[in-house]
């Protein structure tokens, strides 16, 4: 049996894949209910075929919005560039991004899993630590009555997020750095017409080296701002937020305060090793990166599905244990390459506008593929 710790998008996608491959598993989640907080909200073209294949895309697609255009606008000189994901339609089955809160995917997977086996998800149970035994691992957990329970499994997979307890139990840590300034997200039901007519599904505006991005969701717009050295209290002040937007666009058209806002901190971090004996780390427990359109979550989901397939091959005797271990190690190499390295998929909006290579179709499609994680 495979023990999965944490019912976030990565743990749930891993579990669903194991379930559909008929490999026994159990997910243990410390919360009573899944986390519905607003977090990642972009499903990239690389992950959509997997969700489709596992039968969960149909249940969520109408709850979100399909986005194909990404636009870069420099307000200083009005230079702009639009990239259209449809340009890669011959190379991927879902040439669009789905803008939708990650919690919708979690709910859909839980619905699918519990329909066939209500016993496969145990909520209100916190994983504490594990020890190795002769055939696998023994995990110690605490239930909501404060009782310690013991679970034996062949393998343990830590998909328990950035503060992973499984990672601590493996005596590993994330190495890298935290960005000193938080990201400010403002949620608007509607935007001023003067701005709206310029927008694509994702729009990056640049002005005097500052960047602001606007994301279209099904029923709202999200404005994402990265400001340096502004005290938290000021960032949380709606008067300051509106002044900043009006200043950025040189007008006084932002009159209504956002319906909601939040601040979150990001970093660029990777674990040194993602597998030790019978314990593995997948998702935020193994890596964190800046937002960049859902890359961290999407990469984690793909890793979970690929590892579930490798585990299946191992159970069927099609691959050896060392081949399974290698497939997990490859995900660490891929994470270093795709999430952390300054590859071309991480070009800044200004460099993208300036880069003459974008007039070349091959260069453009290659770039769109990288941003869509189609090389993962
Ligand atoms: C405000 C915000 C905005 C974000 N925006 C983006 C974005 O734009 N793009 C992007 O790629 N990513 C974004 N992220 C990050 C994204 O949400 C994560 O990459 C994603 O949630 C990772 O999924 P996961 O399943 O690995 O971990 P999580 O979603 O963190 O799930 C971990 C689960 O494990 C459970 N758990 C933790 N400890 C234990 C324990 N000891 N025992 C049992 N269960 C436990 C938790 O309760 C949780 O349910 C954002 C995050 C935040 C907070």
UniProtKB/TrEMBL annotation:
Protein's name in the database: FAD-dependent monooxygenase
InterPro entries per the UniProt record, alphabetical: FAD-bd (IPR002938), FAD/NAD-bd_sf (IPR036188), PheA/TfdB_FAD_monoxygenase (IPR050631)
Domain FAD-binding: residue ranges: 2-336
Taxonomic source organism: Shewanella surugensis
This protein's record includes keyword Iron-sulfur: no
Heme listed as a keyword: no
Pfam families registered for this protein in UniProt: FAD_binding_3
MF terms (GO), sorted A to Z: monooxygenase activity
Entry keywords, A to Z: Monooxygenase, NAD, Oxidoreductase
């Amino acid at each position: 049996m495979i023990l999965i710790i944490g019912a976030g998008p990565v743990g749930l996608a891993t579990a669903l894949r194991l379930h559909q491959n008929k490999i026994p598993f159990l997910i243990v989640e410390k919360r009573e209910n899944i986390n519905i907080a607003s977090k990642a909200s972009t499903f990239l073209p690389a992950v959509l075929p997997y969700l489709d294949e596992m039968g969960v895309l149909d249940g969520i697609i109408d709850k979100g919005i399909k986005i194909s255009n990404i636009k870069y606008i420099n307000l200083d000189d009005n230079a702009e560039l639009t990239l259209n994901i449809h340009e890669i339609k011959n190379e991927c089955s879902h040439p669009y991004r789905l803008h939708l809160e990650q919690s919708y995917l979690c709910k859909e997977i839980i619905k699918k899993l519990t329909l066939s086996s209500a016993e496969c998800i145990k909520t209100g149970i916190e994983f504490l630590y594990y020890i190795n035994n002769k055939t696998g691992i023994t995990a110690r957990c605490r239930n909501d009555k404060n009782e310690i329970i013991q679970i034996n499994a062949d393998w343990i997979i830590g998909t328990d997020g950035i503060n992973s307890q499984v990672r601590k139990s493996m005596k590993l840590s994330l190495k890298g750095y935290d960005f000193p300034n938080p990201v400010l997200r403002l949620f608007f039901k509607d935007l001023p017409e003067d701005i709206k007519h310029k927008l694509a599904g994702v729009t990056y505006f640049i002005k005097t080296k500052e960047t602001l991005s606007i994301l279209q969701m099904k029923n709202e717009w999200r404005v994402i701002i990265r400001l340096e050295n502004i005290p938290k209290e000021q960032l949380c002040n709606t008067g300051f937020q509106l002044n900043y937007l009006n200043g950025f666009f040189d007008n006084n058209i932002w009159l209504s305060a956002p319906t909601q806002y939040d601040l979150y901190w990001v970093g660029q971090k990777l674990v040194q090793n993602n597998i030790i004996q019978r314990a593995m780390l997948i998702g935020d427990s193994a890596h964190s990166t800046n937002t960049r359109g859902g890359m961290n979550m999407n990469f984690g989901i793909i890793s979970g599905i690929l590892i579930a397939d490798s585990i299946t091959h191992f159970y069927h005797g099609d691959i050896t244990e060392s081949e399974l271990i290698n497939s997990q190690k490859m995900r660490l190499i891929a994470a270093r390459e795709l999430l952390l390295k300054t590859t071309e998929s991480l070009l800044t909006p200004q460099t993208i506008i300036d880069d003459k290579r974008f007039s070349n179709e091959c260069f453009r499609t290659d770039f769109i593929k990288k941003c869509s994680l189609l090389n993962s």
